[in-house]
Write a structure and sequence with these properties.
This protein is an alpha/beta fold. The protein is built from nine helices and five strands; from the N terminus they run βαβααααβαβααβα. Helix 1 crosses helix 9, helix 2 packs across helix 4 and helix 7 crosses helix 8. The relative contact order is 0.22.
C-alpha cells in the first residue's frame, strides 16, 4: 500500500458507513476520520450560540471529543450547518490533510469521494433503505435511554436525506466511480467483508 492510500466512504445516516470505516481502518492499520463529527461539533457550538462560520473556523480537537456529539440534536444541527458553503470550506483543508497522511487513511462522510478526495484510490458508497436505517437508529437511541418513537426517527432520517441530497454545496450522492454497497439485507460482517474485498482489488 502506498504512503498516501486514501479510502473514501460516503453514504446517508445509519447506513453503516461509520462501522464499516472503523473496521476497514483497523484491519488495514490506517488512520480513520469520521468527518461527520466535524459538522456535529460545529452544529453543537451553533446550538450554544456561536455563529456557524466562526464555529467552523475555530474548531479544536477538544470539540471533537465531546460526548454529546452522537445525540439526535447534534445530528440535526450538523445537517443544517453542512448546507453553509463557508462552513464546508473551513473544514475542507483539515479533511484533505488527514486523507493524505503517511500510512494511508479512511474517511467517511457524505462528500468524501465527490468533493474532499476525488483522487481517492478506493471510493465506496454505503446505503440502505430509509426504513432499515430508521430502525437501526431507533434501536441505537433507545439503548441510550432516549425517548423517541420509530415514526419520529424515520421522519428525521427522511428529512436529513432530503436536506443532504438537495443542498447546493456538495450534495450527498455516489461518486461516478464509487462502488455501492447496500446494507439493507446484509449483516455488518458481510458488509465489512465486501468493503475489504473492494479495497484489496485496488491495492
Amino acid at each position: 500500500m502506498t504512503a498516501s492510500f486514501t479510502i473514501a466512504i460516503d453514504g446517508p445516516a445509519a447506513a453503516g458507513k461509520g462501522t464499516i470505516s472503523k473496521a476497514v481502518a483497523a484491519e488495514l492499520g490506517l488512520g480513520h476520520l469520521d468527518t461527520g463529527l466535524l459538522y456535529r461539533a460545529v452544529g453543537v457550538r451553533v446550538l450554544e450560540g456561536i455563529p456557524a462560520i466562526e464555529a467552523a473556523r475555530t474548531l479544536t480537537p477538544e470539540d471533537l471529543a465531546r460526548p454529546d456529539l452522537r445525540g439526535r440534536e447534534a445530528a440535526q444541527a450538523a445537517s443544517k450547518v453542512a448546507v453553509i458553503a463557508e462552513v464546508r470550506a473551513a473544514l475542507v483543508d483539515f479533511q484533505r490533510a488527514f486523507a493524505r497522511r503517511a500510512g494511508g487513511a479512511v474517511l467517511d462522510g457524505r462528500d468524501i469521494g465527490t468533493v474532499i478526495c476525488p483522487y481517492a484510490e478506493v471510493k465506496l458508497f454505503v446505503t440502505a433503505s430509509a426504513e432499515v436505517r430508521a430502525q437501526r437508529r431507533f434501536l441505537e437511541l433507545s439503548a441510550k435511554g432516549q425517548s423517541i418513537s420509530l415514526e419520529e426517527v424515520l421522519a428525521d432520517v427522511k428529512e436529513r436525506d432530503e436536506r443532504d441530497m438537495n443542498r447546493a454545496e456538495a450534495p450527498l450522492k455516489p461518486a461516478e466511480d464509487a462502488v455501492v454497497i447496500d446494507t439493507s439485507a446484509l449483516s455488518i460482517e458481510a458488509a465489512i467483508a465486501l468493503a475489504l474485498q473492494e479495497v484489496a482489488a485496488h491495492r
